[in-house]
């Protein structure tokens, strides 16, 4: 039952690098927020500041109204799960979980009860006497999660916890973690560079770049209505076509489409699934380069007349052959200028926002 | 099955190495060991005419032998304990903290081993003379401490550096103070390698001769110093041989201990291997 507030937090390292730049975020009680961004975007530094392992150069952080900005990690009500698990290899599973409880002088029988309870929760009941080095990667990550959960932290911090696991396990564990998080209603901050992880787990996603926030929104909004070309390109696959608008028409190397914005350079963004293709023998706007059949759908790589690569998702890949001429019909587009969205049409109706945004 | 099909080639390099090692290490040991249990061995006989424990009885009957054994053990324990108390926190600081002059200071521990040792000892003895430390127990402790610094700083530094920082942070995260983290996480993680350093330090101190002789003699007499005086002053070889065999005992015990505590990689890891 806890609220985390981060206000204007910056971190400048001694070598002059600005890792986090005036970052603000409120995480509601029981909410799971994902910090998503490429390496070097400052997301891990931010998480480490919340955990107390880095001190902010400026700014304020509070948990339930209490200032924790300069509180050392051992005195914070936060629990961190590290990417490398960071389990203590000289202790068995039980001792790894009991260590924090012992430091809090919890009676031995209660320690036993709580450790066993949490091990059951993460699906490792009866594993207490195992050495942590005997466990598989997934089991180790579960122990690391249990080690934090057993102390009932107000804020759970997860630093790319599944990065060292294989795809299959990663998918299973993120569902488990999401289930546990929702069952315990624990306020959680989650760092990842994997968009799938963020989209599937988060209540809200914070897309970060160079220590700053690019966009904070629900996963579906971040995916369907990216506010900047960076977010558009980072989440999912997006065709970003640089072109020029003149008299309400966007054009790029033989391809043109009406775009009701003022004249000037524009980046047009179209998702592959929003781009319909028609095979034509004359008046083509592009040429098929490669067709990949994924079974459920096909992906056509095509080249515009000047060689710009564009991807389109098609239901019947067998209709297209390399070298074939095609015309493009986007169902939903967004237009960006100077790093901001200036126009959007045809947003899929599941979002709560109006389909047309015109700035 | 594949392994049995491969024809074994004679490994001449290995055989030559083994032969040379046997000649220079094992053979002298066998000779000294044989002398220690010999009552009569006259030229030109290849094996002793008479084996026996006569010289063991004579050596062990001497009060100076027992007092030097006890002196050597007391010294080795004191020096190793002091060295650990001083060097382990210092090594942790070298491994984990950044402070001005860190690298220079770190390499300065090599200095004691970079010059001819005896010259250094004579210079130190000059200073000790003014401080009235010559011929005292603590004078010898000080000089032998210098000899342990390199092992007790360099090996633990590598050991502490090898401890995963995230493990320490995870301990802070669950509520451990920095000291508790060092005690419960860092030290056990670095334990085997540090045990190796302590072992080297103990055995090195036990055998240390020049410092003990120059600073301690004649009042403080360790087992190696006594052995040297036996070899120099006694025409009977057996006294020296018996003392040599006695000197092997601690290193033998240390080796057995090492096999239990120290896994094979620890020494190598200590030297950055």
TrEMBL record, chain A:
Q: GO CC: one term?
A: ATP-binding cassette (ABC) transporter complex
Q: Which UniProt keywords apply?
A: ATP-binding, Nucleotide-binding, Transport
Write out the GO MF terms. ATP binding; ATP hydrolysis activity; transmembrane transporter activity
Q: Which InterPro entries would you find in this protein's record?
A: AAA+_ATPase, ABC_SmlMolc_Importer, ABC_transporter-like_ATP-bd, ABC_transporter-like_CS, Mo/tungstate-bd_C_term_dom, NA-bd_OB-fold, P-loop_NTPase, Transp-assoc_OB_typ2
Query: For this chain's UniProt record, which GO biological process terms are given?
Result: quaternary ammonium group transport
Q: Does the keyword Nucleotide-binding apply?
A: yes
Q: Does the keyword Phosphoprotein apply?
A: no
Q: Pfam families, alphabetically? A: ABC_tran (PF00005), TOBE_2 (PF08402)
Specify the ABC transporter domain's residue ranges.
Answer: 4-235
SUPFAM superfamilies from the UniProt entry: MOP-like (SSF50331), P-loop containing nucleoside triphosphate hydrolases (SSF52540)
Which family does the similarity line name?
Belongs to the ABC transporter superfamily.
The protein's name is: ABC transporter
State the organism of origin: Devosia psychrophila
Lineage, uppermost ranks:
Bacteria, Pseudomonadati, Pseudomonadota, Alphaproteobacteria, Hyphomicrobiales
From TrEMBL, chain B:
Domain named ABC transmembrane type-1: residues: 69-258
Residue spans crossing the bilayer: 12-37, 69-92, 104-131, 137-160, 181-203, 236-258
**Which biological process annotations from GO are given for this protein?**
transmembrane transport
Q: Does the keyword Thylakoid apply?
A: no
- Main localization is membrane
* Keywords annotated in UniProt: Cell inner membrane, Cell membrane, Membrane, Transmembrane, Transmembrane helix, Transport
- List cellular component terms (GO): plasma membrane
- For whether the record's keyword set contains Transmembrane helix, the answer is yes
Q: Where in the cell is it found?
A: Cell inner membrane; Cell membrane
Which InterPro entries does this entry report, sorted A to Z? MetI-like, MetI-like_sf
Pfam families named among the record's database cross-references: BPD_transp_1
Give the highest taxon in the source lineage: Bacteria
Membrane topology value: Multi-pass membrane protein
What family name appears in the similarity comment? Belongs to the binding-protein-dependent transport system permease family.
Name used for this protein in its record: ABC transporter permease
């Amino acid at each position: 039952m806890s609220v985390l507030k981060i206000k204007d937090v910056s971190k400048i390292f001694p070598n002059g690098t600005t890792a986090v730049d005036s970052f603000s975020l409120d995480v509601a009680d029981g909410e799971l927020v994902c910090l998503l961004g490429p390496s070097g975007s400052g997301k891990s530094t931010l998480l480490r500041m919340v955990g107390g392992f880095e001190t902010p150069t400026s700014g304020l952080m509070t948990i339930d109204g209490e200032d924790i900005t300069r509180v050392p990690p051992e005195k914070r009500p936060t629990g961190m799960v590290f990417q490398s698990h960071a389990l203590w290899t000289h202790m068995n599973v039980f001792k790894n979980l009991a260590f924090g409880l012992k430091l809090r002088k919890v009676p031995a029988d209660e320690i036993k009860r709580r450790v066993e309870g949490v091990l059951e929760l993460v699906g490792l009941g009866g594993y207490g006497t195992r050495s942590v080095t005997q466990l598989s990667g997934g089991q180790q990550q579960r122990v690391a999660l249990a080690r934090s959960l057993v102390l009932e932290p107000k804020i759970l911090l997860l630093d790319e916890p599944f990065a060292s696991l294989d795809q299959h396990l990663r998918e299973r564990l993120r569902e488990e973690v999401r289930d546990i998080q929702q069952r315990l209603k624990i306020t959680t901050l989650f760092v990842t560079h994997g968009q799938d992880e963020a989209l599937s787990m988060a209540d809200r996603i914070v897309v970060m770049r160079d220590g700053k926030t690019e966009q904070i929104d629900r996963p579906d909004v971040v995916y369907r209505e990216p506010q900047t070309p960076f977010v558009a390109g980072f989440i999912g696959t997006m065709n970003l076509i640089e072109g020029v608008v003149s008299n309400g028409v966007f054009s790029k190397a033989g391809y043109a489409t009406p775009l009701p914005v003022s004249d000037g350079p524009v980046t047009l963004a179209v998702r592959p699934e929003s781009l319909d293709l028609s095979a034509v023998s004359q008046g083509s706007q592009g040429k098929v380069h490669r067709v990949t059949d994924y079974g459920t759908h096909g992906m056509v790589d095509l080249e515009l007349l000047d060689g710009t690569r564009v991807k389109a998702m098609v239901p019947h890949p067998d209709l297209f052959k390399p070298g074939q001429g095609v015309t493009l019909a986007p169902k939903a587009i967004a237009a960006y200028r100077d790093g901001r969205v200036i126009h959007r049409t045809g947003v899929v109706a599941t979002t709560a926002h109006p389909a047309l945004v015109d700035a | 099955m594949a392994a049995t099909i491969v024809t074994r080639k004679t490994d001449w390099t290995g055989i030559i190495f083994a032969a040379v090692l046997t000649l220079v290490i094992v053979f002298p040991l066998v000779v000294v060991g044989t002398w220690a249990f010999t009552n009569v061995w006259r030229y030109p006989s290849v094996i002793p005419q008479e084996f026996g424990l006569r010289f063991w009885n004579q050596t062990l009957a001497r009060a100076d032998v027992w007092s030097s054994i006890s002196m050597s053990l007391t010294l080795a324990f004191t020096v190793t304990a002091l060295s650990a108390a001083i060097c382990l926190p210092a090594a942790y600081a070298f491994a984990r903290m950044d402070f001005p002059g860190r690298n220079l200071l770190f390499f300065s521990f090599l200095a004691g081993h970079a010059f001819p040792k005896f010259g250094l000892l004579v210079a130190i003895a000059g200073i000790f003379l003014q401080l009235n430390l010559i011929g005292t127990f603590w004078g010898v402790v000080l000089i032998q401490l210098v000899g342990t610094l390199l092992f007790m700083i360099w090996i633990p530094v590598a050991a502490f550096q090898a401890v995963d920082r995230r493990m320490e942070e995870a301990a802070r995260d669950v509520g451990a103070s920095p000291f508790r983290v060092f005690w419960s996480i860092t030290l056990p993680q670095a334990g085997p390698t540090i045990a190796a350093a302590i072992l080297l330090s103990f055995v090195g101190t036990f055998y240390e001769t020049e410092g003990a002789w120059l600073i301690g003699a004649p009042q403080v007499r360790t087992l190696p110093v006594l052995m040297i005086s036996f070899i120099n002053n006694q025409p009977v070889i057996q006294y020296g041989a018996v003392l040599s065999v006695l000197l092997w005992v601690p290193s033998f015990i240390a080796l057995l201990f090492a096999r239990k505590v120290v896994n094979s990689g620890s020494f190598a890891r200590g030297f950055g291997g």
